[in-house]
Amino acid sequence: MARNLRIGKWQSVSRTTATKKELLYWQGTHEIRLYILTQESLRSDLIEHFHNSAHLGKDKTYNRMASYAYWPHMVDDIARYIASCHDCQAIKIPYALPAGELYPHEVPELCWEVITTDFLTEIPTSKRGFDSILVVVDKLSKRGFSFRQKDGHST
Predict the structure, then answer these.
(1) DSSP one-letter code for 100
(2) How do the residues of the chain divide into helix, strand and coil, expressed in percent and rounded to 5?
(3) Who has greater pLDDT, 7 or 62?
(4) Is the CB of residue 31 less than 8 Å from the CB of residue 65?
(5) Radius of gyration over alpha carbons of the chain, in Å?
(6) What structural domains and CATH numbers belong to the chain?
(7) Residue 15 above 70 pLDDT?
(8) Which helix (H) or strand (E) holds 45?
(9) Which of the pair, 1 or 152, is modelled with greater confidence?
(10) Measured at the alpha carbon of residue 121, what is the angle toward residues 106 and 154, in degrees to the nearest 5?
(11) What is the band of 90 on the pLDDT scale with cuts at 50, 70, 90?
């Protein structure tokens, strides 16, 4: 830890709490920020304090915290905390566009009035030389027929 201290930039300040560990403060041009190395409980307490005051998103929570404290991968820790916040997940606003209006198909009145067809191609050639299948399905009865085809690429 002493190796990272630079004259005029870092200062070590004792804290008389239950942890009794050294805390580092970074002195910038206009601010003093707490540099948190390994105190996981302090990190989570700070994130909880800054986030739960207004349940802001990760960017706003980070911007509020950045002027007071810093640690490596702070953005990732904030994102994980917000993803696990029950209140935020319960009231999350969906940003996807609303689904379009559905238009149901008309139901045919007679069998074989409306059919669908499909070609199954590029299948292994049979012993008789068939290499594709034509499938025809009635939309009302859902009855289907399949017909073997030769040279399915030209049909």
Answers:
(1) P
(2) 30, 25, 45
(3) 62
(4) no
(5) 33
(6) 2-90 (1.10.340.70), 115-154 (no CATH)
(7) no
(8) helix 40-52
(9) 152
(10) 95
(11) confident
